[in-house]
Amino acid sequence: MGCGHFRNNVEMRPVAVRRVEDLLIRPNTFVHRNLHWFGDIYNLNKLQGSGEFTEVYECTHKKSGKLRAVKIYKKAILHLNNNRDFFQREIEVLKYLDHPYIIKLYELFEDQSQYYIVMEYTRGTELFQEILEHRTFTEYEVAVIARSILLCFSYLHEMNIVIRDLKPESIIIDGVQIKLIGLGNSCKIIPGKRISDPQSVTYYVAPEVIHGSYNEKCDLWSLGVIVYTLFTGFPPFTGDTDEEIIENVKAGRYKMVEHLWNVSDEGKDFISQLLQKENKRPSAKEALNHPFIQKAKYNHSQTAEPVQAALNNLMTYPRKNKLAETILTYIASQLFYQSDISSLVEIFLILDADNDGKIDKDDLVEGLKKFLGKEVGGAEEAENIIRIVDTGNYGYISYTEFIKAAIDYNTLVSAENLNAAFDMFDQEGDKQITASELKIALQADERVADNVWTEMVASADIDGGGILDQNEFRLLFVSDK
């Protein structure tokens, strides 16, 4: 069987939304094609990198001053090389992902000659470039990088998404912090079914991918190749010709060369576990429990106080109406750099006890007990937190929902953030927000009745004029906590 479409029932809205309370507001609500010209909204800055049919630039959002990255696809080359499916798949998969180690998609533009994908700005360089420049990685650094990648795998595989061709060019690294990019070759699978979709051969693909029958464990092989390369500076599979290299990959023939002599037994065993036949290879969650990876886990004793503060913020997060929650979700998903919330990223990963990229009831109960000593009533408290914080109706707390509720509330609703959010919803730039502008900002279609937008505006329209001015907008967040 080939790849499936990137659709998930969780992300699908009801056929017809006729009540405000039924409208789902999630980070991907704001990800859509902007009908303005790219140059009207962003200033294009320096070139960051280029590929076969793309160029990546740093850019600045004119109104907010926020740095972004934009990947520009040239239509002529894209269509000439028959890579349009790759381009569309990348958008489709990134739109629905919400994980701290996976690049975030913000919005799309199109003109006569080019497509523009505006994404999260990340400092750092491609891991491939670091390897080429012979950066020396310590064993601890390799363990941290590998653990971060495994957390991405665990999240993606839980969503039945397989990367298939992970390589160092698909990873941005800043110190030891990583960000997964370039998921255009990812594939949606049916649990328990194998993929037969043929792939181009690279030095990082698993033998079963070359043979044309594989599952999500092919990603673990790719990680094994990357870890080996980080330790040695070159890939494990060698040969005098490309054909000989591929034959060695198919056979799984590699050597623990002298460059690995100074690597611990745990590090060598980790590589061996990943570079073996699929039926013996661990899953992402199993690999996260390997002794080599355990070296890179956070020291909970050093982070107890920040975790306690975050849990207290979750417990006291104010219940808001739909318009206010929409605004707060926009702020949390689009107005913070990861460097602004790095401590919360760590706390999110600590509370995500089963490493699936979300915080469910069991995770919360365990966290409340471990960090706040809630031996009694933890389950009820966890249910209440999820009921209030889970405004996307996932049934758990997503990464963005966690950031929104765990961050200091005054930081979340700062004047700077509220002004930037108001400007986003104020599509015409006339210092007021109408129901039609709200509909455009949220990219609604005929499945959402117009009365929904009217009622959302009315919920904050103090003078009854049918529009929101900046003062009415701001008053949504006064005296909440």
Automatic annotation (TrEMBL):
Domain spans labelled Protein kinase: 42-293
Alphabetical list of Pfam families matching this protein: EF-hand_7, Pkinase
InterPro entries: CDPK_Ser/Thr_kinases (IPR050205), EF-hand-dom_pair (IPR011992), EF_Hand_1_Ca_BS (IPR018247), EF_hand_dom (IPR002048), Kinase-like_dom_sf (IPR011009), Prot_kinase_dom (IPR000719)
Family matches, as PROSITE patterns: EF_HAND_1, EF_HAND_2, PROTEIN_KINASE_DOM
Entries under SUPFAM superfamilies matching the protein: EF-hand (SSF47473), Protein kinase-like (PK-like) (SSF56112)
Cofactor: Mg(2+)
GO molecular function, one term: calcium ion binding
Assigned protein family: Belongs to the protein kinase superfamily. Ser/Thr protein kinase family. CDPK subfamily.
UniProt-recorded name of the protein: non-specific serine/threonine protein kinase
